[in-house]
Give the backbone structure.
Amino acid sequence: MFQNRFKHVGLMGLSLSLLLSGCAQNTKIVVPSYTAPVELSKIEALKSGGDTTEGVYLSFAINPELAFSSQKPAPDEVDLLARNLVNQLQVQITETSFITIHPIYDMASVVLDMEVMDFQYTEQGGERKAKLSVTFTLSKGTNAVLAKVYDGNEFRFSSDPNRLPNKQAILAKLSETVVQKFVTDISPTRTNQLREFLTLPSDLSHVIGFAEKGNFQSAIEDMLKYQGKRDVNFYYNLAVLYEAQGSRSENLNVTAKAKQAYEEAFRLGGNKNDTIASAKARFDNFYRLLVLTQDQKTQNQQLNQELNDQFFMR
């Protein structure tokens, strides 16, 4: 998961670099992040109120019945497609809780309908081919707020057909691909990004080892104890540590400290460093999406409580 990459060639050069800087530049770690929903402005229009609050909930119910614009496939394929699409929607949409799924289609004010525009599946020798095209339509009342087509393709080949996945597995993967494209359009989705550390004084070189092991708390504590000069590199690396710790737990208080440290690094001239500027821009986007997601999740809690009480979903 973590990678150490050094630009220096040869053991002598590497040892000298570590002696001089205390920490090799280009040490990188992976931090969780978010990607922004493509159709966020349209999704905002789907918000609706509850018994005591107006205009805050973000939820929809899924129509379990598929429509078909062309010839309907065989019954077993219809059943597989419907079950896989609904299951994938339930899994992927609830991953961030930005959107709540209403349990009863006929009672929801916002609904999702799916129409299969094209479906093909063929088996021939050592080949398995599948294609799926689905229109996802989100409607509030009688108004379609979002209607968009998403495509997926699967192709598998083996000289030994027995090693190929069966129809059920291929259709499951196909449904996962199509739903993933749809969910990326309507909800913040989790992803990972790399953050690169800059050189630190030898007294702090060990904190990178903590970070590589995922012990961000110890790394932060030792950084904060440091009595030496706190320059642009210091605040940038501290920001990366706070970001890694906060993004892993999705803790807004910790990520707010990362924001402050990034801003301090910028104040000290970090805006002229491409590594710092790029990392801060990516963090700012993540922070905005984290705030948005956490805020919507909190607002959805009342709806979840109402649904639990109404349908005894405890």
Notes: Confidence is low (pLDDT under 50) at residues 1-24. The chain has nine helices and eight strands. The beta strands are 28-35, 59-62, 67-68, 100-102, 110-124, 127-140, 143-157, 189-196.
